[in-house]
Amino acid sequence: MNFNDMSIFVTIYETRSINKSSKILQYAQSNLSARLKVLETELDTKLFYRKYNGLIPTESGDLFYQFCLSLIHISEPTRQAEIS
């Protein structure tokens, strides 16, 4: 798992859609689907229920979202320092 995968997950979680996320992130839908599948495999859990009208986070998905937000928040000063 890498930071980029977590950022992708956060966008998918917030939009509840791989299609919308692909437009926001400017990635192919197939790429986002593949990254999500890799995360689910690495975490050995399902992060979303796939429904005809979008994605619904599982309990694990909700917990992982909170974890990602925490990590993004904690690492932001370091990431900004690297850019400067």
| Strand arrangement across the biggest beta sheet | 1-2
* Annotation, overall tally of beta strands: 2
How much of the residues is beta strand, in percent? Answer: 5-15%
The quaternary structure here is: single chain
Account of the 3D structure:
- The protein is mainly α and 84 residues long.
- It is 73% helix and 10% strand.
- It has four helices and two strands, in the order H-H-H-E-E-H.
- It has helices at 3-15, 18-25, 29-43, 59-83, and strands at 48-51, 54-57.
- It has a two-stranded antiparallel sheet.
- Helix 1 crosses helix 2 and helix 1 (3-15) packs across helix 4.
- The protein is globular, with a radius of gyration of 13 Å.
- The two termini are 25 Å apart.
- 15% of the residues are buried.
